[in-house]
């Protein structure tokens, strides 16, 4: 569904399904001048500086007049066409324009503007950069009318400085916009603008790096917590009875894991005042000299703290390996299963320790 309205002779169309607007048959948008548009200009100014902003806006205005000129050319004279363009511009929110004077022989025009969006934006921001986009548009129009290679619109009054209106004098210029940009590149102002751009880039990079570092630290903290949880799960120490704790071992017991296991086992003996500690090897499928040595160290360390220690659940294959590599288990209490170990501990309890 298309909704239509005519304002100041200009037709607006709103497509309720596509959510698009057309103005005079061309795609358009409505935008808040004192917030959104002012913010856009402020951001550009912060990145490039005042002079570059003026030149870029002037160039944008100059290069965007093809349809304006085509509209003017529909009428018998330039003056009539420009007068009609003034009506369209006003209805489109470009303020009120007035062609104060036009001298085709001298190739000079003077145009005034009231309530133009550039001046409105700058008043909201409390700055005075000049209405360079509008000046560029006038320069592009009169460049075609004067039939010269380039024109420049010099702004002589400023609404942002308290004048009643913005006024421009448009004349042919020997210096093109590109020449002016080239000259600007050799000035201190350009250096300051480049420095501002570089500093802004560095600031953003620092912020991005800080955010990345924080994200990495958070991930490392999470990994550390997960590793701690895995270590706790891989060496669970369970208090199965008053004064009786069991340590089920599973998988491979290397040097690092053995050290961590010993620390956890000894801490548990002290904290729980354990009299008996059962090291259960049911979950150990393979054993070598190093692993057997770690287990023997665990037993001796537990006994130094006054806890009786026993080994349970040795599998047949593990038992054969331990015998073949010559491990001396004569001083260890070994039982077939964890159940047998618990029965032995219960006997200690009935005998009073």
UniProtKB/TrEMBL annotation:
PANTHER family: RSBT ANTAGONIST PROTEIN RSBS-RELATED, RSBT CO-ANTAGONIST PROTEIN RSBRC. SUPFAM superfamilies: SpoIIaa-like. This is STAS domain-containing protein. Keywords: Coiled coil, Phosphoprotein. Signal peptide: none annotated. InterPro entries: Bact_StressResp_Reg, STAS_dom, STAS_dom_sf. Residues 234-345 form the STAS domain. Residues 196-229 form a coiled coil. The keyword Phosphoprotein applies. Pfam families: STAS. The keyword Coiled coil applies.
């Amino acid at each position: 569904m298309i909704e239509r309205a005519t304002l100041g002779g200009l037709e607006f169309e709103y497509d309720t399904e596509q959510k698009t607007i057309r103005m005079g048959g061309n795609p358009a948008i409505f935008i808040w001048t004192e917030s959104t548009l002012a913010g856009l200009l402020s951001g550009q100014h912060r990145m490039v500086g005042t002079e570059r902003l003026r030149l870029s806006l002037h160039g944008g205005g100059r290069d965007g007049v093809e349809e304006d000129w085509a509209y003017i050319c529909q009428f018998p004279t330039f003056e009539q066409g420009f007068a009609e363009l003034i009506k369209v511009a006003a209805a489109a929110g470009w303020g009120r324009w007035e062609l104060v004077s036009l001298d085709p022989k001298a190739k000079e025009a003077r145009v005034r503007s009231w309530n133009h969006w550039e001046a409105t934006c700058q008043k909201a921001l409390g700055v005075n950069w000049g209405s360079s986009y509008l000046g560029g548009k006038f320069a592009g129009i009169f460049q075609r009318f004067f039939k010269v290679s380039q024109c420049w619109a010099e702004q002589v009054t400023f609404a942002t400085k308290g004048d009643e209106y913005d006024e421009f004098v448009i004349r042919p210029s020997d210096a093109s916009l590109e020449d002016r940009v080239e000259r600007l590149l050799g000035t201190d102002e350009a250096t300051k603008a480049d420095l501002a751009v570089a500093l802004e880039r560095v600031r953003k990079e620092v912020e991005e790096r800080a955010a990345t570092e924080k994200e990495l630290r958070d991930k490392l903290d999470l990994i550390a917590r997960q590793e701690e949880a895995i270590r706790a799960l891989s060496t669970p120490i369970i208090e199965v009875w008053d004064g009786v704790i069991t340590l089920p071992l599973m998988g491979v017991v290397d040097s690092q894991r053995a050290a961590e296991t010993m620390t956890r086992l000894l801490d548990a003996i002290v904290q729980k005042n354990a009299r008996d500690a059962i090291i259960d090897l049911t979950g150990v499928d393979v054993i070598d000299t190093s692993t057997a040595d770690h287990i023997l160290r665990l037993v001796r360390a537990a006994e130094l703290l006054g806890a009786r220690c026993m080994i349970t659940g040795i599998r047949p294959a593990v038992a054969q390996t331990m015998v073949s590599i010559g491990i001396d288990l004569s001083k260890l209490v070994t039982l077939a299963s964890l159940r047998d170990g618990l029965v032995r501990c219960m006997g200690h309890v009935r005998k009073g320790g």
